Amino acid sequence: MTAWPMAVLLVVGSAAGAGQLAAQSVPSAASAPPGGQVVLVDSTGKVAARPLSETIMLVTLAGGVVAPAQIRPVYSPDGRAASGLATWHSGGSVLYTSDDCTSGAHVHSPSLAGVRASTQVQTAAGIILFAGAIGPSITEGVRSILYDTGCASVALRQNGLVPVVTTVNLTTTYPPPLSFQ
Fold it and tell me: How far apart are alpha carbons 36 and 52 in whole angstroms?
């Protein structure tokens, strides 16, 4: 091979290599946050939460506390899911150190890394989100448990709990139906 074709191969090879390097670099525009973030909106048009998954939402509460809340589809009277509509989910429990579900509220610590402990309970006033503290779980003497069906007296010691730091009535603060926008 003569010197001229060898030089052409070398230049073409260098240009191809440079193109590959340029293709692998990240342009500065890619580091900007996405323009239209998906949010969960309530029936009044107010942003209620940001999605963590299809059914777990991150709700910002008083004092900047961010807690996970669950949603479920809205169903019609004939049992069919309504397209694009959701409501708050309930069915959790809150454990209390008092005999009557009035003080010393605790929730179970989650197994999800980095997700604050929380639970949702249906009450006469609406679905209440109970957000737990961040930190190690503790063992506590439980005297009553609040369920969707009401308060039940118990006497037990339970581990894996964190104290409740704040609550919010999801039904009145962010009235359903809910939808993603």
Answer: 16
Please state the rounded mean pLDDT for residues 96-120. Answer: 94
> Which DSSP string do the residues of 53-80 spell out, in sequence order?
SSSEEEEE-GGG-EEEEEEEEEE-TTSP
Q: Residue type at 134?
A: I
Distance CA 98, CA 153 (A): 9
11 is written with which tokens?
């230049």
Cβ atoms of residues 120 and 108 within 8 Å: no
pTM over 0.70: yes
Nearest CA among 180, 57, 64 for reference residue 129: 57
Q: How far apart are CA 20 and CA 17, in angstroms?
A: 5
Task: List, in sequence order, the alpha helices (H) in the chain.
Answer: 3-24, 170-173
Tell me what pLDDT residue 112 has: 77
CA 41 to CA 56: how far, in whole Å?
Answer: 14
Which residues, at least 6 apart from 59, have a Cβ–Cβ distance to it below 8 Å?
A: 48, 49, 66, 67, 68, 69, 129, 168, 170, 174
